[in-house]
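Subject: Protein entry, chain in single-letter code together with its fold tokens

Category: Structural biology, sequence-to-fold work with a learned token vocabulary.

Notation: Tokens come from a learned vocabulary of local backbone shapes, not from coordinates.

Start of record: The labelled sequence and token lines come straight after this line.
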Amino acid sequence: MSLSFTKSTQNLEIGTSMIETFEGTKIQESDIQRIFGTPSNDNSENKDKGYGGEWYFVASTGSVYGVGFRFGTMRTRGKAFGLNEKEYAEFLNWLRGELVSCFK
């Protein structure tokens, strides 16, 4: 099964794991903004706690995944309950493909 992902404008509370680099290059919030545009949540009310923008995507199955930043480090985001490992891996592969265009 091949999933497709579309950008979501929803602000969702979901679990996290860190990703700091892509092929040896530190991923910056500006890189993600260049690829995906305006964040789904800019976290303007939490900047003092180190939070940056968050971009959420809805898989064709309805699952929600995303990326966000805290203290300048990119973190992947996924629903804390019912997370499907296979879908999550597919999200990471899709995200990798999107990052390739940024780091060419």
Observations:
- The longest helix spans residues 85-102.
